[in-house]
């Protein structure tokens, strides 16, 4: 049975619920935030490729790592300069992320057979898969409201799941 820190789970749950409500209330803000977040991740990827080029042996390996790093750098700069345009481009990436989260939540649900409260993980996984489908079917016209709203809903359900798991765990421990 997996163990987890009750305090950290509650803190994560509260943060996810707060961000989820913010993104639902202001979906364009949520979409821009998601776009900029991915921009930062891509920039970190560029830095990693440049650093890896530094330790590569052979000219071919160095050149390829620098070229890949430049592609990452260009993509991140484009997202930083055009975050709203990045929303449309990242809509499909977001659908893949939410679908992957849904699948992983379902896998976690099935691995926690004896854990009380695991039904929230099942619900979180199902809702995430439905949201991923909604993103794909509404693309690109709904990108400006869909990303923020759907990420907000996903955060909200993930936060609820993280808040309820420690409560069920403590109740089971107290009864035993």
Main β sheet profile: none
Structural class: mainly alpha
Count the strands? 0
Mean pLDDT: 85
Molecular shape: globular
Number of helices: 6
Relative strand content: under 5%
Give the fraction of residues assigned to helices.
over 70%
Residue windows where pLDDT falls under 50 for at least 5 positions = none
Radius of gyration: 20 Å
User: What is the terminal separation in angstroms?
Assistant: 15 Å
N to C succession of SSEs: HHHHHH
Explain the layout of strands and helices.
Blueprint: H1 6-25, H2 27-55, H3 59-81, H4 83-111, H5 119-138, H6 143-175
Task: Describe this protein with a few key phrases.
176 residues, mainly alpha, single chain
Give a structural overview.
The protein is mainly α and 176 residues long. The chain has a domain at 6-33 and 83-175. Helices cover 88% and strands 0% of the residues. The chain is built from 6 helices and no strands. The protein has helices at residues 6-25, 27-55, 59-81, 83-111, 119-138, 143-175. The longest helix is centred in the last third of the chain and has 33 residues, at 143-175. The radius of gyration is 20 Å and the shape is globular. The model has no long low-confidence stretch (mean pLDDT 85).
TL;DR of this structure?
The protein is an all-alpha fold.
């Amino acid at each position: 049975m997996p163990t987890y820190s009750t305090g950290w789970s509650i803190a994560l749950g509260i943060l996810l619920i707060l961000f989820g409500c913010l993104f639902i209330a202001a979906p364009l803000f949520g979409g821009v935030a998601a776009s900029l977040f991915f921009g930062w991740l891509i920039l970190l990827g560029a830095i990693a490729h440049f650093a890896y080029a530094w330790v590569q042996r052979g000219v071919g390996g160095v050149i390829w790592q620098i070229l890949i790093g430049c592609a990452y750098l260009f993509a991140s700069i484009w997202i930083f300069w055009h975050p709203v345009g990045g929303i449309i481009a990242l809509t499909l990436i977001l659908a893949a992320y939410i679908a992957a989260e849904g699948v992983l939540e379902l896998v976690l649900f099935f691995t926690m057979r004896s854990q009380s409260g695991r039904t929230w993980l099942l619900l979180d996984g199902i809702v995430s898969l439905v949201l991923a489908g909604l993103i794909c079917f509404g693309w690109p016209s709904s990108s400006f409201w869909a990303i923020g709203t759907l990420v907000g809903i996903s955060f909200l359900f993930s936060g609820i799941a993280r808040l309820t798991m420690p409560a069920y765990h403590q109740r089971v421990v107290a009864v035993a």
